[in-house]
Amino acid sequence: MNNAVAGFSKLTKEEKINWIANEYFASPTEAIATIKQYWNNDTKLQQLHDEFVENTISNFYLPMGIAPNFLINGKYYSVPMVIEESSVVAAAAKSAKFWSTRGGFKTTVLNTEKIGQVHFLFNGDSNKLQKFFNTIKEDLIASTESITANMQKRGGGITSLELRNKTTELENYFQLHVTFETKDSMGANFINSCLEQLAKTLKEAAQSHSDFNETEKNLTVVMSILSNYVPNCIVRAEVSCSVEELAEKKIENPQLFAEKLMQAVRIAEIEPFRAVTHNKGIMNGVDAVVLATGNDFRAVEAGVHAYASRNGRYTSLSHAKIENGIFTFWIEIPLALGTVGGLTSLHPLVKIALEILGKPSAHELMMIVAVTGLAQNFAALRSLTTTGIQEGHMKMHINNILNQFQTTSEERKVIKSYFEKNSISHSAVVSFIENLRK
Q1: Of 31-40, 295-304, 361-370, 396-405, where does mean pLDDT reach its minimum?
Q2: Using CB atoms within 10 A of its CB, is residue 321 exposed (0-12), middle (13-18) or buried (19+)?
Q3: Helix crossing, 88-100 with 389-404: angle to 10°?
Q4: Could you say which DSSP state residue 4 is in?
Q5: CB-based burial, 258-292: b 16+ in 10 Å, e otherwise
Q6: Which of 278, 280, 257, 258 is nearest to 268 (CA)?
Q7: What is the pLDDT of residue 305?
Q8: Which of 121, 378, 427, 436 is most open to solvent, judged by the fewest CB atoms within 10 Å of its CB?
Q9: DSSP assignment string, 197-232
Q10: How far apart are CA 208 and CA 218, in angstroms?
Q11: Which residues are identified as catalytic?
Q12: Cα dist. 19→22, 31, 33, 36 in Å?
């Protein structure tokens, strides 16, 4: 492509596809056929998907799997997971089954506070600004009543509002720091609407404030936006049992296993290079459920990793201990989630996922998501400290390799039979396929 395209968004869907196919592919007909192959035959349903984002040309499928047997606070769940990575769903299910016979998962939502900020510049006396804020604080909150009325009926709304002086970090920079309760809604649009109204009211009040000089009256609102860092929207999930109860087929010495797993966690607590991969494994479970339930996994990821760095160093999200012969493994994680609004009321498979989970509240979904992350972490650490991570992963990954080489059903039987007793690696599978076909 040598030239920019003008008016791409104004083209029809067919015109967009034709332009892309002709511009980027040696065989435009094949490209168009592949793109359309992923359309839904139900025209109305396809239109729904088309309107989720801009310039839509097709659907991009990810597998939706189920991890059953999650016993959470005495109740069984089958957890929907949307992810493309081999072995994640299997690992979560294996952990769920393991802990279901050892008391299950215990969870607690510690708090549900969400945060938004109005960022503005004020060139003047900060004491005068603070006095001004104290005077108009109630008016600021009152100005949002038309936005917050319905949320207040459900027990939510603005829970606090404060002025923060950040001028030691950036010249003339101040914030309105606002906390919210959004109940079963993730609340992004609600929060941003409130913040924009607060900013408007603040600016108008400043312009008519008699104690401000002309420079002070013209404070500059830079932006009004929610924060995806929610350090006070925390859920705790944990499992525990006696060390002896950890014993199973591949854990012949439960004391040694518990100590080794605890050391693996400790390494992730002090070594950022390990912590990043350790937490990525947790997010394999977290993101898969967040995606399945129509929530924003990018926001969750950003908030979680900020939380992992809250003390000035990136560290593990999970922790383990042995006390008085009891092994305990737990996680505390920030999760701003919703079960109403957005995709939760639009995407048919999101509705299915929430139905499978028993139509959970946002609190309950926080618990389920945290548990899935903890289960995934336990599965990874169990593999790492016993057989190694590749054994189980490659058993699941072998299907991808077989699909890549378009193996026949007869070839698959021979290949899988061979690798039931032999070490699996990508090169070993490829070599076996090549020799089989000679």
Answers
A1: 396-405
A2: middle
A3: 140
A4: P
A5: bbbbbebbeebbeeeebbeebbebbbbbbbbbbbb
A6: 278
A7: 98
A8: 427
A9: HHHHHHHHHHHT-TTS-HHHHS-EEEEEEEES--TT
A10: 10
A11: 85, 280, 296, 393
A12: 5, 11, 14, 14
Say yes or no to pLDDT of 389 above 60: no
Chain-centroid distance of CA 58 in Å reads 24
pLDDT value at position 391?
57
8 A C-beta contact, residue 227 and residue 116 = yes
Q: Residue 266: what pLDDT?
A: 98
How large is the average pLDDT for residues 73-86?
Answer: 97
Do 285 and 376 contact (CB within 8 A), yes or no? yes
Q: Mean pLDDT of all residues in the chain?
A: 94
Q: In the predicted model, is pLDDT for residue 399 greater than 90?
A: no
Are 240 and 323 spatial neighbours (Cβ–Cβ below 8 Å)?
A: no
In the chain, the N- to C-terminal Cα span, in Å, equals 42
Sheet holding 173-181, edge to edge: 157-165, 173-181, 114-121, 220-227
Q: Give the H or E element holding residue 157.
A: strand 157-165
What pLDDT, on a 0 to 100 scale, did the predictor assign at position 412? 81
Whether pLDDT at 392 is above 60: no
Q: What is the dihedral of CA 34, 36, 38, 43, to 10 degrees?
A: -170
CA distance to 13, 69, 241, 268, 327, per residue, from 379 (Å): 44, 15, 16, 15, 15
